[in-house]
Amino acid sequence: MNNSLHLNRESPIHRLSPEVKIVAVLLFTIVVVVTPREEFAAFAGYAVLIAIVAALARVPAGWLLKRATIELPFVLLAVVLPFAGHGERVEWLGMSLSVEGLYGAWNIFAKGTLGVLASLLLAATTTTRDLIVGLDRLRCPDVITQIMTFMVRYLDVLADDARRMRIARLARGYDPRFLWQVKAFAVGIGALFLRSYERGERVYLAMLSRGYAGRMPVTVGAPAPAAEWVLSAALPVASAGIAVTALLA
Amino acid sequence: MHIANGIVDGPVSAIFIVVAVVGLAFCVWRAKLDLDDRLAPMAGLVAAFIFAVQMLNFQVLPGVSGHLLGGTLAVMLVGPYVGALCVATVLIVQCLLFADGGLTALGLNITNMALIGAAAAYLLVAGLLRVLPKNPAGLGATALIASVAGVVIASMGFVVEYALGGTTELSIGAIAATMAGVHTLIGIGEGLIAAITVVTVARVRPDLVYALRHFRKPVLAKAVLA
C-alpha cells in the first residue's frame, strides 16, 4: 500500500534510506521547537532550508501548502490569542492587541507550520513500507512495527469493505444523513469490526501454519551507509547552525 | 484533535515522551498476557479497523460532518491494553504518514488519547457494567457514558500539559472550559455510535466483546451436569 501523501518521484531525497530521513526530520523539528520565539531571522532560515529540501525532492510548493492545511485548527487558536492575551497592548488598525498574545500566536504558527512541512516532506519522499523498515532499523520495539505492518497491510482491505457496505446500503435506498439516523451507520461499524476480527483470526492461523513463531522474518536490504547519514545530517546541522548564530547575534 | 509542534514547550514534551514509552511498555506486557503470539495480527487488524472507521465521515448536520475517534470502542471490544496499543499505533502512523500531530508532541498525544483515554474509559466500563442492568440497554448506556467521560478526560490531559508547559499565556480556566465543552459534544456523538456498535457486536458474537468476558456462562459444564 502507498499512503495518499507519497509522491512517486525520482530524486536524491527519495533515494535516501528511510531511517536517515526519519532521524533528520526529528532532529530538525526539535531544533525548531526549542528555538526562542523572538528569533525571527532563525525561523526565516528554517523556511529557506525546507524550501531547499523541497526543491531537491521535486515536491511542488502548491502540493505542500494544500496539505499543510491539516494544522488549521491550531492556526485558529493562534488567531484568537492576540485578542484574548493579557498584559501590554498595542493599537493596530484600530484593534487593541496583546503583545504577549501576538508573540504566542507567532510561536504556534511558525513552529507548527515548519513541523508540518518537514513531516509532509518525509511522507512525500518515503513509502509506507520503507517508513516501517526505517523504524525497525532505528530499534523501534518490534511489537509496534509488527502491529504497524499489519495495520498498513490491511488498511485498504478494510476501507474497501466499509465502502462496499456503504454502497450496498445506498443501493437499498437508505442514506443516513443526520445524527438521528445514526443507527444504520453504527450497525455497519459493528459488522465491519466482526469482519476485521475474523479476518485477523484467519490471518493468524494462516501464519501459524506457515511456521510463524511470534516474530516476522528479518526483511532483506542493507542499513543506510555512512555517506547517507552524513548527507542527511546537513539539514539538522544547518538548522542548529542557524539557531546558534541567531542566539549569539 | 492532535497537538501540533510548539504548543507545549520542550522539557514538558520530553517528560511526556518518557511517560508514553513507559505506559506503552506496560501495555505491551499486559497485552501479551491477553493475546500471546496472536498480538501482532489481532492488534494490527483492530488498528486498521479504527483507522478505517475514522475515514468514514458521518453527516451530523448538513455541511458539518464528524468522524469517530474509536478509542472507547476499541477498549470495550479488545480490552484496555490492546486497545491503547492500537490507538497509539494509529497516532504514530498519522503523525509520520499524514503529518497529523507534531513529531515532538507525539508523547503528549499518545499519553492523552491512548493511555489516559483508554484507562479512564475502561475503569468506567468495568465499574458501570457491575451496576447497570445486564441487558443490551445497560451495555449501550455503559458505552455512551464511558465514551463521553473518556473523551473529556483525555482532553483534560491536554489542559494539564498546557498548565505545565504552555508556550502562551491563556487562563487555564478558559482553556479547560472550552476543551470540556467541545469534547462533551464530540463525546456524545462518539458515544451514540460506540453504544450501537457494541450492542450489535454483543448480539452476534458476545465472545468478541472483551468487556463482557466476566459474564460468560460455562454452557458446556452446565449441559454436562444436567
From TrEMBL, chain A:
Pfam short name (any one): CbiQ
Subcellular location: Cell membrane
Chief subcellular location: membrane
Iron is among the record's keywords: no
Keywords: Cell membrane, Membrane, Transmembrane, Transmembrane helix
Topology of this chain in the membrane: Multi-pass membrane protein
Cross-referenced InterPro entries: ABC/ECF_trnsptr_transmembrane (IPR003339), ECF_CbiQ (IPR012809), ECF_transporter_component (IPR051611)
Record bears the keyword Transferase: no
Transmembrane stretches, start-end: 20-37, 43-61, 68-85, 105-124, 178-197, 229-248
NCBIfam families reported in the protein's UniProt record: ECF_T_CbiQ
Protein name from the UniProt record: Cobalt ECF transporter T component CbiQ
Organism listed in the record: Actinoplanes flavus
Gene: cbiQ
